[in-house]
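Backbone-to-sequence.
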């Protein structure tokens, strides 16, 4: 695998467009597709591009994967159970394919970039027709052409993960919200994490391309743009085009009503970004700032590049600038050698920071990462006990945070009718908390409305439109 970043040229994209036209011209058997997505927002966004390319080739989306002619699994390998889940579901489809032999099954995403994985699963599961890596996603038309016209099974992985591709079509599932990928890959090499190995090196898109995309989305009625990147604070490094806070400023100036981003690394959370939070009209008062552990010793072993004090200090500065900001986190328990004392420090930090909510994970060893060979694995029973304690504490804090919202008025971007109660509308407030509320006017989907909070559940708020 090469380490260099490759900008995919317009010629290469045009080449794929020709393959797409050829697929459209020869295709007689397959007409529908279904994409199954695992993992993070990057994968969701990639799946939107997969759908976009498939629709461009003339296929239409099928709701039910067992009735689709082409099924693509967009996989995640962040933890072992993510691999297991994806594989289990792929294998499950084998029986359907026996009854519908024309069905094409493809696998793409991060799992396919694990060393030797694509070759292994194609060898082991003859009913899988093709595999595509994260850096080669744009070659879907070519691969489908080979599979359909040549009747051959295909693999396109690991030539280079660090590609940057502009101009792929995409299908957006919601009218009011959209993702924009601003940078891809990661150079941080946290010792537990497989992402740098499967998503390639950090690379940023040109700010002009991002702003053009944002303007088109605004014209299309989009109210909220979520900027995506493994470490958005690194945006622009290397290319020297704009820094991340400068990009946020530019998006605010063009009038994006709501701006969010995922994910920001604590070590790179700059004073300029904090300043932008205070200044920006569009930037939502929410920050996902994964701490991973509250123990300095463990943070060091994780290669996170900050300690608990500097993390707390940054959170304090943020709250000074935006008192109502909601902070959320990711936390890993049972990292190799984690002692009871280390874990207590994580609990203590969680209590001090008081996150709105947190994603909690038991450490999962990933082959190829630095932590994989670390001694001091924590027994499963201890890991389970720790995560349960952590979850219980965070749940209590979440409840308290929700209670604190009673009587406050917040802005909610309306997504639709509440699934639980048809008389209510639902959406997210700036802090990214779900709010269900009553309103006289039901035609508010896609609008940002004021809601007064009157009640709360275990992780949602309830209120009345004002
Ligand atoms: N780029 C993001 C995170 C991407 S992965 C960031 O740096 O914040 C999402 C989360 O999965 C991580 O924050 C971490 O908490 C968790 N995670 C990653 N690798 C893991 C592993 N090997 N075992 C358990 N959890 C892991
Ligand atoms: Fe993984 Fe760390 Fe990169 Fe996030 S910053 S993707 S946790 S290596
Ligand atoms: Fe999973 Fe890949 Fe995202 S490993 S978490 S889908 S970047």
């Amino acid at each position: 695998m090469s380490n260099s970043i490759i900008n995919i040229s317009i010629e290469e994209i045009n080449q794929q467009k020709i393959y797409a036209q050829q697929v459209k011209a020869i295709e007689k058997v397959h007409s529908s597709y279904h994409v199954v997505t695992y993992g993070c927002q990057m994968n969701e966004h990639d799946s939107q591009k997969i759908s976009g390319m498939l629709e461009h080739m003339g296929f239409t989306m099928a709701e039910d994967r067992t009735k689709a002619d082409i099924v693509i699994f967009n996989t995640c390998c962040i933890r072992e159970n993510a691999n297991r889940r994806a594989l289990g579901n792929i294998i499950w489809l084998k029986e359907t394919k026996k009854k519908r032999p024309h069905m094409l099954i493809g696998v793409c995403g991060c799992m396919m970039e694990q060393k030797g994985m694509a070759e292994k699963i194609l060898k082991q599961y003859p009913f899988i027709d093709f595999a595509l890596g994260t850096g080669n996603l744009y070659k879907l038309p070519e691969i489908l052409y080979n599979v359909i016209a040549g009747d051959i099974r295909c693999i396109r992985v690991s030539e280079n993960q660090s590609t940057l591709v502009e101009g792929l079509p995409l299908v957006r599932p919601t009218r009011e919200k959209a993702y924009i990928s601003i940078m891809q890959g990661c150079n941080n090499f946290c010792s537990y994490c497989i992402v740098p190995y499967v998503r390639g090196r950090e690379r940023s898109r040109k700010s002009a391309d991002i702003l053009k995309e944002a303007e088109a989305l605004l014209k299309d009625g989009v109210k909220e743009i979520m900027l995506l990147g493994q470490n958005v604070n690194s945006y622009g490094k290397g290319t020297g085009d704009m820094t991340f806070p400068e990009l946020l400023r530019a998006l605010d100036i063009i009038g994006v009503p709501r701006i969010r981003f995922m994910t920001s690394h604590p070590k790179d959370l700059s004073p300029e970004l904090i300043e932008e939070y205070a200044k920006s009209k569009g930037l939502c008062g929410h920050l996902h700032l994964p701490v991973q552990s509250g123990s300095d010793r463990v943070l060091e072993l994780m290669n996170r590049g900050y300690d608990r004090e500097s993390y707390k200090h940054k959170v304090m500065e943020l709250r000074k600038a935006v008192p109502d900001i909601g902070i959320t986190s990711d936390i890993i328990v049972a990292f190799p050698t984690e002692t009871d004392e280390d874990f207590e420090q994580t609990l203590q930090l969680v209590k001090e920071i008081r996150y709105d909510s947190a994603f909690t994970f038991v450490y999962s060893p990933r082959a190829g990462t630095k932590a994989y060979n670390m001694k001091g694995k924590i027994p499963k029973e201890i890991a389970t006990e720790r995560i349960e304690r952590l979850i219980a504490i965070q749940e209590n804090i979440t409840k308290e945070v929700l209670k604190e919202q009673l009587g406050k008025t917040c802005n909610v971007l309306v997504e639709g009718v509440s699934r639980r109660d048809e008389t209510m509308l639902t959406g997210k407030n700036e802090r990214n908390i779900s709010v269900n509320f009553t309103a006289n006017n039901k035609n508010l989907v896609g609008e940002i409305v004021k809601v007064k909070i009157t009640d709360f559940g275990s992780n949602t708020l309830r209120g009345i439109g004002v």
